[in-house]
Amino acid sequence: xxxxxxxxxxxxxxxxxxxxxxxxxxxxxxxxxxxxxxxxxxxxxxxxxxxxxxxxxxxxxxxxxxxxxxxxxxxxxxxxxxxxxxxxxxxxxxxxxxxxxxxxxxxxxxxxxxxxxxxxxxxxxxxxxxxxxxxxxxxxxxxxxxxxxxxxxxxxxxxxxxxxxxxxxxxxxxxxxxxxxxxxxxxxxxxxxxxxxxxxxxxxxxxxxxxxxxxxxxxxxxxxxxxxxxxxxxxxxxxxxxxxxxxxxxxxxxxxxxxxxxxxxxxxxxxxxxxxxxxxxxxxxxxxxxxxxxxxxxxxxxxxxxxxxxxxxxxxxxxxxxxxxxxxxxxxxxxxxxxxxxxxxxxxxxxxxxxxxxxxxxxxxxxxxxxxxxxxxxxxxxxxxxxxxxxxxxxxxxxxxxxxxxxxxxxxxxxxxxxxxxxxxxxxxxxx
Length: 432
Ligand code: GLY
Ligand code: MN
Ligand code: MN
Description:
binds manganese (II) ion; 2 domains; three-stranded antiparallel β-sheet; 18% strand; six-stranded mixed β-sheet; Creatine Amidinohydrolase
């Protein structure tokens, strides 16, 4: 059985150590109903195992390096909740060297901890019961020191290894991210084709998520944002229940999750298919900033410098349009641009939409390297009650967001199938 990520993880561990990685817990929606289960990204990355109530124990120096504790088969429960891999499946289907029922974890964990120099464990990762079990076992080992037991000397966050691995996407992962982006781009195109005045924002949301699911995506990678008019100036607008108005822009931030991998795409377009002159001025500026920043996504660039470029282009443009007054240098130093551009240029993306991986190393913004994927998403958001700016811009919100893979010699835009040039958008929408 192939388990390349797990094998690489083992290689990077201190050999005299043990790692404990837990599955995500089922999340309650209300009373006794649950949200659809979503596995913990670290756990999924290492094991591919998609059930709750599972724990992986990794011991590089032992004969049995990879142990899975899982829910045992249970015909009665499986009638209600579906098939479980069980102890046998954990070995046969997921490559565990040994497997036990999850109920045996507590009695066995002490044996794994005993004598390990380091414990790799992500404390505070949403499973307080497991945190407590592990602390209890460590304390127990300390009290048994005279009997030759030995508690770990240090607890190290598993993220120090796993997150660095996750930051660099393998060809297989890139394929899945491309698929997530393709599905999402199709949904954005379809939204452009179908949007028209008097529709509800939630109709567009439903259309987008229909395309996600119909294409085999697990779910949206985050709550879909469909904001018409001034709703586009609310960064995390997710109520999506207003009516789309003729003459307004529509901002859609929507991305599918495919086989666990996220896309994160934003497009902004006119509800009636034609940009007004004022909307186009803002739109063109955001696009100018986005293209300039995407150009910088290549090996050796630093996210901090890409962000700085977005601030420069947007600030200079906002002065030209009369949104800001003064000289660019001062406005940037005093962060005056934040009235209209209040977030940063983007983030890593992968199994999590806001993915893991360190942005800084020793206080310095790290350099991009091939295999990293980041979003590039500048925006301008002009609240409807802003004072002392040209009235024609009030209530306009524009963001353009793409997912960009760093390649050996530059980049590849995974989300390029979603139109973003004004002419492309207007041409597509004219087909409606
Ligand atoms: N959709 C969340 C983000 O753009 O970061
Ligand atoms: Mn987004
Ligand atoms: Mn994003």
